[in-house]
Amino acid sequence: MKKLFLLVILIQFSVYFSNAQSYFPENGPLYIDTVVPRIDITINPDTLDWIYDHPDSDIEFHAKFVFNNGTIVDTIDPVGFRLRGNTSRQSAKKSFKVSFNTFTSGGKYYGVEKLNLNGEHNDPSIIRSKVMWDMFRKMEVPAPRANHVQLYINGNYHGLYINVEHIDEEFVLTRFGNNDGNLFKCLYPADLDYLGSNPDLYKTGAYTLKTNEEADDYTDLANFINVLNNASNNNLVCQLDDVFNTYDYLKVAAADVFCGNWDGYIFNKNNYYLYHNTATGKMEYIPYDVDNSFGIDWFNIDWATRNIYNWQMGNEPRPLYTRAMDFPELRNQYSFYAHAMINNIIDIDSLIQSISNRRDMIAPYVIDDPYYPLDYGYTYNDFLNSFTQTIGAHVKIGLFPYLNQRKSATNAQLENNTMMPVINYIQHEREAGQQIWIKAYVQVYEQPALVKVRYSINDGNTQETDLQHIGNGIYSTTLTNITEESMVSYQISATDNIGQEQILPCNMIDIHPATGDTPLLFINELMADNANTIADEGGNYSDWIEVYNGDSESVNLEDFYLTDNLDSPNKWQMPAITLEPGHFELFWADGDPSLGDHHTNFKLSKDGEEAGIFSSDQIEVDAVVFGTQSEDISFGRFPDGTSSLQFFNTPTPGASNIPNGLDEFDNQFLLIAYPNPATGGLVHLNQSTSVQVFNSTGKLMYTGTQVNSINIDQYTPGLYILISENGGRFKLIVN
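User: That's the sequence. What structure does it adopt?
Assistant: Structure tokens below.
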């Protein structure tokens, strides 16, 4: 029988789409920066002494956490507590990490699992990193939130700290809408120099995988570094755009250079993250640890006047920065961001005023900070003077003079070239009614912009349609009269007011047909919090997914993929198993495929996510979007293979969800309609049953109670799905 893919989930139709563009969550109560919240840590005094005596230890100890921002007072007990940082571990004013999920599985506080409490011992103003985090936000760079807090440990005041959001899977989820990609922490000497094509060559300690650790796969990082270093100048923009969010990185580079953040990638090959955004397939650059900025100096370098196009350390390899500076199109884009940052996005006079206001707000908490003087002998007057004067050997310029000198030097160094139009965050989605929605972010040197989609249907002639500006640089359009069987290929073109045109991506994006040779496979049941329900062959209680064959023919599962991200369809290939009609197959979503061919390379989140089955040509066969899950409660379809989803207090992994259902396929569930294909008249059923008929858009066409036949005289040609009261399903083609 020819298999046709059902475009929508039957009974209720919804379009699920995750935005690939970065999100910028609000500060909320935890990162409120109009007051200075108080954080109290209570820990065994002997344990605290041990932590101070062993500064290199990462052992987390039980502690009690109390947060008070003047409006909200919360207590969490226990939390994990330890030192954090690098050189700060040897300082008198140390930095700390608070973990809400160390002793409480899945523990979070206002959506975050960990807090970084930074002592900022190098910075007499205790404000530089906060200023830079705020500047990143104004530049729309996905960076941590931060605020000042008072820290008390066992009732003793430990001083004024900066509370900086931890970068982990929760962080990337809130910024990019997904967290199943690889997140690499990149520390010295992470220069992104090419070491070879073998991904294991990058397991040097400079790049550390912080997610998907069981898979331990550095392939995406190695591929990005290969393209970055080895793409020819003629192909650099195209090839780099395929694997890296280049334009957002150029914003980071402009901010790093302006702020004198020498301890990041460009100068010190240090302190950043790379995240493989599975919604776009591109690496994202995330800045990290920016306290050595705005004139903090250990190299006797004048950071306020250093050339913005030659900012790296000597002749050491920094391909991400130097290749951009050597390539005119990317260099001009960088120049545009550098100019916009200090002349449009950030007004230096207003910034200095806002910093002054924050200085006055935090000043009372510096006066009594007992650890503030211990590292460099700073006094309260040093704090006040650090905004306008040189303070000590490594603070050679005050914060305000730095800002003014850096702006003046940057404007003097900027090259007067125009940038090509920027096209980023390209997205599409098939919609009901033979429509395809397309959206992109476009930025041009000079408005207005003319934005078009260039597309072809089934490799036919190229057509063009204008995209309309819907605000904030977002342009969109809807292509109509695109049948579900059509392959659509497209690119976006943008032309600015002076005639410069950009077309991206360089290779057309393919939108696969919504129909194809796909069977009725279903994610029939899943469990994302398996504590005691069922163990795998190794005795481990892991997440699991049950696949059900609701078709009338057997299916070779090797031709299909499971995923926990609908934007990453070919995530895990199922094994070479023939699944008979009405049978079930159980897979362990434990993120460790080395355990066997039934173990996926991803896990499920009990906080809710998505799961899908895709064919090898990326056609969606089935998908489930689920919310928060409870321990040992499964979520699935009832009856089997229908669109009705519910929780099961009594899970049935590897078996029917119907009470007293049979593990083996029973003929009573088999629904057959004939003739098929049919042309008008009556379609007969193989049993008297209550039945519903849906068209390919999910619209209910007919409901019958205990019927033997259905009149299809009024049905238009197309695919229809029949569902019986016991869960039997049949695909009917009307000619």
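Residues 446 and 497 are 6 Å apart (CA to CA).
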